[in-house]
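Re: zinc ion structure - here you go.
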Amino acid sequence: MHYLVLSDIHSNLNAFEAVLADAGPFDQIWCLGDVIGYGPQPNECIERLKSLPHICVAGNHDWASIGKLDISAFNTYALRACLWTRKQLTPDNWEFIENLPEKLVEDRFTIVHGSPRHPIWEYITDPGMAAANLPYFDTTYCLFGHTHKPIVYACDDSHSTCGGFVLPLNEPAPIPEERLLINPGGVGQPRDHDPRASYFLLDLERNTIGYRRVPYPIEETQQLMLSLGLPRLLAERLSVGW
Ligand code: ZN
């Protein structure tokens, strides 16, 4: 089976479509949460995802947008976008977001948005955080998002240590056998100073994992955001991949 592993679409349909066009044939999308929030097309992104074979977990922006999560920790810009998103969602799409699970297990993979320890909120930002999360999943591998930065943490379970590395671009590599925490980066708002949409491809027949980046019409997304009254900073950051 071929899986398209992606996270943090953040209502950016142009970025999502670019990923779908670039990915080639796949059997299922594994979506790591934050389908909505920040960007201009929440309903369109949910409906596009629903039109394809997929599984998906909840992200903090997903649940914040429907009031299922306390948003007092959000910064002003995230909060404004969140409240705007809340007003846009159709009843069907609201229900879709409400019913997303916090955690899924597929094959050898645990799937969460933030971390296995705190699936909605925790950011895994360094090898120490990755190691601290090892006791919180039973599978060999964990897929997570939330930071919008592509990285793989390879861990030595017996010593509770991990090291982070970035996969080579466009070169599917064998999936290492040690325990891994894997983040495919962000589709709709990358934050590693590369504005291209980021995602991974998993081929479980060949047992390979591939890292891909794809450009998309950023200005179109930005113009739409500004015309809808979303914060200018949220539009501008897309140009610089932050
Ligand atoms: Zn996010």
